[in-house]
Each structure stands twice: as C-alpha cells, then as structure tokens.
C-alpha cells in the first residue's frame, strides 16, 4: 500500500485514498475529507480491476444419485407363469403354483435384503387361485402393508406392497 491508493476498511462501510503510511498504521481520507487511521491488516485495496477481469467458470451441476430404496419407480413382479419359465406347457397346475409361490417368496426376501420400500405384484384377474395364494403369503408376512391397486379388488390384477 502506498500514498494515492484507494482502500476500504474490512467490516466497515468506509473507504478513501491513502495520505500517509507510518509503519503498520495507514492514514487515509474519505470522500468528505475526514481522515482515519487503521492498521494495514484492517484495510483492503479498492481496485476494481482486481474483480472485473476475473473469468467466471460455470461448473456442471453434479447429478444427484438416488439410491434404489428411494427411487420413485417401484419394483414390479409379474407372476404370470409364461414370464417365469421358458416352456410353460411342461408344468401341471400344482407345479405352476409352487413355482409362482417360490418366486414370490424370493422377491420378498430380495426387497427386504436391499431395503426396497415398494413392490407391485401382478397376479392377473383369472379364476382367483393365484390371487388367493398371493394374499395368503402376504397375510403371513410381518412388517408389510399391502393393498389392491384398484378400488374394486376383485377387478384388480395387481397388489401394491409397502415395506416398513
């Protein structure tokens, strides 16, 4: 800092032009002609060139990563038999129901293990045997809530499960 430099006081609305420098003490005059004395560490240069020629670099905003358990899209399990095996005609009705029940239990365990919050089970409308099996399994489970996707549950082909 030298005589003639413009300075501003840190933490105060006060600025002026330096009239003298005595060691660590700087004397300056404000725009009204009043003189002030401050130590050098309380003053900063008031030079607009320092601030005007700085390039502003815009950085890309980081993408927020959403964990699986907080995703808006819930997991869907379709229990229609042709989605579960390659050759559905090779199984009788008892084997079909057994495989569907095993798949349901496997997916429920997967959801709990990975802390998923919601699961939709599509069982279809059909004659109600698969729907009854799904309801029996869900009623035997702890720490879940479930409800039919439609208001008239007998017309609904799906059940929504929420894990606690």
Write up this protein.
Helix content is 25%, strand content 27%. By secondary structure, the protein is of the alpha+beta class. It folds into two domains: 6-52; 68-163, Ribosomal Protein S8, Chain: A, domain 1, CATH 3.30.1370.110. A five-stranded antiparallel sheet has the order 4-3-2-1-5, with no helix packed on it. A four-stranded mixed sheet has the order 6-7-9-8. A hairpin with a 5-residue loop joins strand 3 (25-29) and strand 4 (35-39). The radius of gyration is 37 Å and the shape is rod-shaped.
State the end-to-end distance. 66 Å
Compute the number of structural domains.
2
The main sheet comes to: 5 strands, antiparallel
Strand order of the largest sheet: 4-3-2-1-5
- The tally of helices reads 4
Helix content: 25-40%
Shape: rod-shaped
- The assigned structural class equals alpha+beta
Spans of at least 5 consecutive residues whose pLDDT stays below 50 are none
CATH class of the largest domain: Alpha Beta
Evaluate the radius of gyration: 37 Å
Overall average residue pLDDT: 82
Portion in strands = 25-35%
CATH topology of the largest domain: Ribosomal Protein S8, Chain: A, domain 1
In total, how many beta strands?
A: 9
CATH architecture of the largest domain: 2-Layer Sandwich
The H-and-E topology, N to C, reads as EEEEEHEHHEHEE
């Amino acid at each position: 800092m030298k005589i003639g430099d413009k300075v501003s006081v840190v933490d105060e609305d006060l600025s002026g032009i330096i009239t003298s420098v005595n060691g660590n003490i700087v004397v300056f005059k404000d725009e009204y002609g009043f003189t002030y004395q401050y130590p050098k560490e309380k003053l900063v240069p008031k030079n607009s060139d320092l601030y005007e020629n700085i390039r502003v670099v815009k950085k890309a905003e980081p993408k927020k990563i959403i964990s699986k358990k907080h995703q808006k899209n819930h997991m869907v399990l379709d229990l229609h038999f042709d989605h579960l095996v390659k050759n559905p005609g090779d199984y009788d009705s008892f084997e079909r129901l057994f495989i569907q029940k095993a798949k349901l239990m496997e997916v429920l365990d997967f959801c709990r293990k990975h802390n998923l919050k919601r699961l939709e089970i599509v069982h279809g409308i059909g004659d109600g045997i698969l729907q009854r099996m799904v309801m029996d399994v869900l009623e035997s489970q702890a720490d879940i809530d479930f409800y039919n996707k439609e208001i008239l549950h007998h017309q609904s082909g799906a059940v929504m499960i929420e894990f606690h």
